Amino acid sequence: MHYLRWVLLGLVSAGIGAESFAEQNLLEWWHRSNFGYEVLTHALNGSSIISPSDDDSNCMWYLEQVLKGAVENKLEDLRVLDAWGKLPSGLLYGHLVDMGNYESCLLGNTNSDTKYCLASIHFDMPLPSAALNSLSLRIGTCIPALCSARLLNIWLNDYVNWLMEQRTTQITTLVDESNCAVARKAPMTGLDWFAVALLIFFGCLVLFSTILDYSNFPLPWLSAFALRPNLQQLQHIYRGSSNVVYCLNGIRCLTIIWIIFGHGFMFMLILPNINSYKIVGWAQTPFSMLLQSGSTAVDTFFMLSGMLLVLVSMRELDRNAGKLNVPLMYLHRLVRLTPVLAVAVLLFVTLFPRLDSGPLWQEMTSSYQLCKSTWWATLLYVQNYAAPGRMCLGHSWYLAVDMQLYILSPLLLLPLWHWRRKAVAGIVVIILLLSACVFSIVMLNGLVVFNRDGNLGADSVEMRKIYYTTHVRATPWLIGLLFGYFLHSERSRIRRRCSKWLVLCLWLLAMALLCVVIFGVFPYTQPNMAEMTPLAGAFYLCCSRIAWSLALCWIIWACQNGYGGIINSLLSWSLWQPLSKLSYCMYIWHLLVETAHAGRIQNTVHFSNYDGILNFWSHFGITLLFSLLMYLAVESPLVRLELQFLGTNLRENPKTTSISTPPTVSRQNLVAAA
């Protein structure tokens, strides 16, 4: 019984001179206050199961053994009941979840294995101050593994109705088998073993090619996987070249940092917090707008994509007298995007669900099931139209939009080179028409552009119609296209110096536009402010994407032409360059890292800005590590293989640090047209 006192009840120490209670007093207290003991005892004594099956009968027998062992103070049976959660303390401050003890539950006992289930008990109890129409308690439970979620649901219903003396007909309980877990994992499938074999293959390929590289016996095709040249490529810093738009590295890196930061906070909002009601007040602070306006970050990527595409394409058109090798252009894009994405999809479907476990693990990672039916749409870059609301890797919608615009780009690039100003006017008309289209979609459907309660990325009509469709997201890309053409045309002209006052005014205007876009909807977060109307939302949505893109155009132009000052020094910092090369892998992998972190949590957490920043650094560091591995093993080697296959000569000497390999997709087109 000494062991029981330390392990189950903890170290009970009394102050000097204070009277201590006996162990039996503590056990009696435990029996009277344990929620699991009360529910299961009531289930055993007054079960309302009609015509029980053999499994139900076996379940009840094991349940009886657990309760009998608990009465006899057997540790393994007490542990099953002790793993149950209870009514959370701090309920009125938003502490609505007590997940119990997940690991203790799954230790099982000698009679049978055990099963952990996270139950939800709903109350029709409006809490306007917390922006809640009802209150839902989530409590961890632990039962014999033979017992089904259906039985547990019956027991909880019976107990709650008995406790409330049948007066609470509006109270319902919900226990789903998908919210239950057992210690034993499902056996590996053939696809799982294929994923393991693929990882081993890439690892061995990198190791073998690296050994050959250091032994001065490199093979042409294997040398692409050697660590040394790929690390040199990653570490290489461009300096002093007029053909490099250095500030783009900083813009790209700050954007991916913003995205990782924002998604991390989104997970914090949906995790079981002990102070959930604090989130309501937090959402009314200026700091929260960095998250609530976070979708603007992707517009930066679209704008940069259009701009850089033009700079490289115009150089090729100039060199080839107006001819563009469109099939080769598409091949480059597919080779540089698809391998990393395909590996992510494969691992997400197979090995990712096996990485860890926890009360929320299946709930947080359940989206991998979608990949089994929609993986093809992701790899074909059509998931934003072919599988809305069911996308495999939800954040991959950006790749679909960008690829679709890339495929359509020759229809604009060729007219730009041949007809110049007429094509520019045509693109301006397209921008206006698309803006009118977005405006009409919002107005005709009465869509809520900004919801102060937020849907945190969940599927909705707004997400499908005005968030990840290509025709809605194309405006920043088209503005980037025009700006890239302007930069290309400007090279052949004599540049005139701008006055200091003009530069200052344009900088102030650009900063004002950025602030208005980020904080423009801040007044609608305040409790005394009416909801944003569809008309106001339509104006904001159309104007914000144009304003954001134009502000970025000025920042890039000013930095490139000597008007950037300290901002140019920050954005052109040489250390941004290696990170910029990893940005594509970081975008693909960061959400998987954050999902795993959220799913493995086994206790309630505390919400605050400080906790969010701490989480960001852990997410960023682990994402950076995974991205480095993917870059060295997949992205960079396959790009080098593509160049060798197409007969493109790599100009670098693998024994030197002079690297001139064409950029990977993470930093593609950062070298502007000459």
From TrEMBL:
The keyword Membrane applies. SMART domains: NRF. One of its GO terms (molecular function) is acyltransferase activity, transferring groups other than amino-acyl groups. The keyword Electron transport does not apply. This is Nose resistant to fluoxetine protein 6. Residues 56-182 form the Nose resistant-to-fluoxetine protein N-terminal domain. It holds the Pfam family NRF. Residues 1-22 form the signal peptide. It comes from the Eukaryota. Keywords: Membrane, Signal, Transmembrane, Transmembrane helix. It comes from Drosophila lebanonensis. The chain crosses the membrane at residues 193-212, 244-270, 290-313, 334-352, 397-417, 424-450, 470-489, 501-525, 537-558, 612-634.
